[in-house]
Design the sequence.
């Protein structure tokens, strides 16, 4: 098998873009898969799913401040890392809509998902020419388990844009390394800008930036010595400008904040790290598990992933060593293929596949050595979001084995090996698709409950407005969500379960609440904070007036 299938003759056992079915049929099916993926996510948004939280509300508040020109934050409020790009994308939506909303906050993330899906199809088609394989990739990415749709739709910082940007970097790298003519300086500029932008937004995508950058250096060294290299460097500095300027002016090293967030200041045993990083993490992060947990049978992907990585790396390396060289003059046009897409030389295709595999290994390795993998493996599996960029590279050798097994001559000495390999590969593809479908179904089942919880929160907002409450104290996961839902008509300061001041991501809210005459208290029913306030009420009857609604308790100072 080779990664650069466009260079293979029909008899090589590799899939061909026009073999086996009419391109019109597979094209319609691919379009349908895209519509299903987008429609499923629109349905989730209609149910206020995935459930929002105060972190996402913090991004919404930043977008609100940008839309009002009240502030232009460099970092996610309350920390010195993770650029709030999603806030800048949502701010125009808020301005046009006349105010903030959860749907308005998530429309840009939905658009980023659509871009990621289309770029994944484009990359797969460019590198393999296999339209049916492109359909498989799109179908898998159209599905969405609990963790996957959270990464794609929640505007919590970094995750929705990383996959779209990483896939765009891969597509641009293919075009540049293969010598595709036209707009080359523009492509170099966009590549550099996206790379720099992602350094500011979230460093989790850096393994892909480094690996794909190495491909460009390997194939375009001479071109990079001229205007292309200058534009790429200048664009990268421009993309990372917020980070660079803040670091210079404030004298801060953002790497320290990133390391602290990854658990560098905490401790976790290596057994826990390996379990979370290599067993739970891949299955959760790549969309094969139920909401918030993995059944034992769903963990099979964690066992298959190392084998897929090794197979994909070996296949790409074999092609990279044996395929003929390519012209070094980037002005040489690439030939058109049967599918109407320019041919990609086998060495370029293999190099990009290998880069995607190595980036996946780097992502897994960095996550596994972090304490987050051992301390909070379920929630921190979001750090593996970028692995979906490598999905086409992981599955391509398996797909090629399934298709190639159909074409082995009866007397071929490799027939026995192919006869064994093909059913195994076919079973792997079926298991991958089936497990992802099951996880998607389980995630979809939670949507009605999420909509009901959002309705209860809406009732809380309505009740506070009817009571004339302007200032409240509440827990962290209540505060900014409440402030965002009311467009800052209700301002909240964070307290812990013992009523002491908590972590306020936007300190101005605490100053306003502390200056208020009689702030109220808000707590979810049966929460530790509610129990503490109930104890206060029992100890001093009449000190607070209690208002209860479904799911919430509001404590008003007695007048």
Sequence:
């Amino acid at each position: 098998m080779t990664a650069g299938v466009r260079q293979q003759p029909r008899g090589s056992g590799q899939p061909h873009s026009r073999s086996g079915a009419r391109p019109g049929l597979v094209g319609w099916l691919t379009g349908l898969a895209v519509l299903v993926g987008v429609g499923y996510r629109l349905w989730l948004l209609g149910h206020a799913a995935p459930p929002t939280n105060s972190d996402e509300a913090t991004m919404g508040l930043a977008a609100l401040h940008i839309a009002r020109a009240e502030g232009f934050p460099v970092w996610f409020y309350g920390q010195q890392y993770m650029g709030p790009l999603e806030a800048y994308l949502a701010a125009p939506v808020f301005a046009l809509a006349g105010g903030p909303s959860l749907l308005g906050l998530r429309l840009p993330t939905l658009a980023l998902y659509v871009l990621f899906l289309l770029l994944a199809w484009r990359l797969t088609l460019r590198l393999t020419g296999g339209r049916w394989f492109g359909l498989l990739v799109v179908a898998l990415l159209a599905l969405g388990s609990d963790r996957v749709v959270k990464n794609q739709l929640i505007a919590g910082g970094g995750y929705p844009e990383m996959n779209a940007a990483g896939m765009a970097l891969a597509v641009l790298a293919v075009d540049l390394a293969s010598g595709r003519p036209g707009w080359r300086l523009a492509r170099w500029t966009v590549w550099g800008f996206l790379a720099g932008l992602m350094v500011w937004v979230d460093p989790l995508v850096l393994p892909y930036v480094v690996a794909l950058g190495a491909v460009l250096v390997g194939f375009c060294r001479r071109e990079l010595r001229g205007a292309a290299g200058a534009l790429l460097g200048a664009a990268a500095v421009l993309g990372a400008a917020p980070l660079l300027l803040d670091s210079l002016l404030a004298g801060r090293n953002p790497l320290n904040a990133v390391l602290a967030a990854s658990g560098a200041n905490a401790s976790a045993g290596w057994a826990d790290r390996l379990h979370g990083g290599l067993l739970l993490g891949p299955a959760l992060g790549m969309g094969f598990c139920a909401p918030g947990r993995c059944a034992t049978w769903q963990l099979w992907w964690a066992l298959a992933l190392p084998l897929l990585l090794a197979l994909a790396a070996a296949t790409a390396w074999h092609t990279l060593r044996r395929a003929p060289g390519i012209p070094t003059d980037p002005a040489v046009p690439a030939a058109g293929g049967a599918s109407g897409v320019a041919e990609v030389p086998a060495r370029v295709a293999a190099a990009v596949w290998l880069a995607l595999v190595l980036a996946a290994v780097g992502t897994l390795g960095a996550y596994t050595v972090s304490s987050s993998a051992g301390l909070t493996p379920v929630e921190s599996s979001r750090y593996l979001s970028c692995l979906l960029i490598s999905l086409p590279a992981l599955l391509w050798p398996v797909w090629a084995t399934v298709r190639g097994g159909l074409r082995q001559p009866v007397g071929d000495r490799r027939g026995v090996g192919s006869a064994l390999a093909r059913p195994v590969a076919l079973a792997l593809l079926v298991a991958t698709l089936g497990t992802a479908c099951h996880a998607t179904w389980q995630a979809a089942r939670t949507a009605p409950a999420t909509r009901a919880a959002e309705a209860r929160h809406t009732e809380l907002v309505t009740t506070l407005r009817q009571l004339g409450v302007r200032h409240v104290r509440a827990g962290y996961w209540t505060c900014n969500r409440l402030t965002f839902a009311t467009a800052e008509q209700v301002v909240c300061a964070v307290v812990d379960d013992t009523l002491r001041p908590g972590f306020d991501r936007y300190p101005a809210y605490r100053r306003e609440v502390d200056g208020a005459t009689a702030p109220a208290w808000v707590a979810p029913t049966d929460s530790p904070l509610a129990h503490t306030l109930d104890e206060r009420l029992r100890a001093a009857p009449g000190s607070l007036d209690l208002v209860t609604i479904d799911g919430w308790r509001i404590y008003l100072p007695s007048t």
Notes: The two ends are 79 Å apart (CA to CA). Residues 1-21, 327-341, 406-416 have pLDDT under 50 and may be disordered. Residues 50 and 149 are 7 Å apart (CA to CA). The first helix runs from residue 23 to 46.
